[in-house]
Amino acid sequence: MVSGVVPASLTGLIAALLGGLIVGLERGWRQRDARDGTRVSGVRSFGLLGLAGGIAGLLPNVVAAALVLGVAALLAVGYRLSARSDALSATTAIAGILTVAIGLVAVRQSATVALGAAGACFILLSARRSLHGLLKGLTETEIEAVARFLLVALVVLPLLPDAQFGPYDAWNPRKIWMVVVLVAALSFAGYVAARRMGSERGTLVVALAGAIVSSTAVTADLARRLRSESETRGALSAGIALASIVMFVRVQVLAALLVPRALPSLMLAMAPATLVAGGLALLGWWRQRDDRAAPTRIGNPFDFGPALLLALSVAVLSLVARWALARFGDGGIAVVLGLTGMMDVDAAVITLSGMPQTSLGGVQAGLVLSVPVLANTAIKAGMTMVIAPGRAGLAAAIPLLAALAASLAGLALWYWGIVAI
Fold first, then answer.
1. Per residue in 36-48, pLDDT tens?
2. Cα 142 → chain centroid
3. Which of 16, 212, 231, 386 lies in disulfide reach of 103, CB 3.0 to 4.6 Å?
4. How would residue 359 be classed by pLDDT, with cut points 50, 70 and 90?
């Protein structure tokens, strides 16, 4: 009787063959102009290599190892022959061994994983020209920056414990260090964007994208650059304001989804802040339009001072927030959310959404939710002036301070009965 279900071994062999054909498509295209007899392997050969790996996966381990070693020997001979040509490259031989491994994975582990690996191999092989161009354009400073980021993100971070320590269990070393990783990543992203897109456009793009994750981290990085990149201070100041505008919009969207009853009163505080910060940022950027033709000096992409300062602030504020929660309990909702929002406004919104609707009415919920947003804005203004002391830091902080004042003015108008919700 014929079963309607395809055997797992046959599915694995099909995936192994497809994986080989995927890799072979790129290799065959790369060698399309080579003379007959000089190509080591093409589409058919790589398809056969993938199939050989799949068949090896169905055999006992000893026989499979012998088959794989035999294929590796053939590839080594092919590489030796290709080494006699002008262009010496082990890429095809390495890709062949990897294709055999993909075939093994397809049969013994997962066809999906094998095809994903084949796709990744295809992308990496086809990116040869762009990757080589990238390497030629890198400077020693950029290589050092990449090394530092890898150390921070891939060496230090995994070694830190993901557990609560300290008074009130306020400190999680891995989460606190994630702040350093995030600021470092944004710093390097901004550096790359400035080189590829121009300092002004790159700054604004990174500020917009980075603020979706953390407007505070963006502020710390752009304030760092204010100290050394005087030619683009208008764009940097606009980027700091733009990051806060993204935060204003993001918190209203989250409130509309999670705490809709709080949205009307929350908008009373957020709408004036958004308009004022946007207008002042645009004005500051426009005033420096005459300086755009000047050559721009891009600073060091990795100055860890602001990142460590922000991580220290998160640790301190986390302790204070835990103390306030233990001290005031539910009766100090505004205090707790305000302290929480200094570190993470989104966390404050989520915390409020988890409370019973009977605990706070719609107007009260929006007003309470505005506390962490205003606190976070004040913290970022102060951080900007501390990291970039002097006129540059003050000028960049003015849109944030003005947004804060506009929000307070809107709330005052409501309190005096001039504006109704």
1. 555 556 778 888 8
2. 18
3. 16
4. low
pLDDT of residue 92: 76
Sign of CA dihedral 119, 121, 126, 128: positive
Whether 292 has a pLDDT exceeding 50, the answer reads no
Write phi, then psi, for 9 (nearest 5 degrees): -65, -40
Residues contacting 47, CB < 8 A, separation 6+: 17, 20, 21, 24
CA dihedral 100, 102, 104, 108 (to 10 degrees): 180
What token pair was written down for 356?
């019973």
Per-residue pLDDT averaged across 178-204, rounded? 67
Q: Are 339 and 317 in contact (CB under 8 A)?
A: yes
pLDDT per residue as tens digits for the range 59-89:
888 888 888 888 878 777 766 666 555 444 5
Q: For the whole model, what pTM was predicted?
A: 0.54
Q: Is the pLDDT reported for residue 239 higher than 70?
A: yes
At 168 the pLDDT is 76
Distance CA 270, CA 253 (A): 11
Residue 165 phi/psi, 5-degree rounding, is -135, 170
Mean pLDDT is lowest, of 197-201, 299-303, 320-324, for 299-303
Domain boundaries along the sequence of the chain = 8-134, 139-415
- Per the model's pLDDT, the better-predicted residue between 344 and 386 turns out to be 386
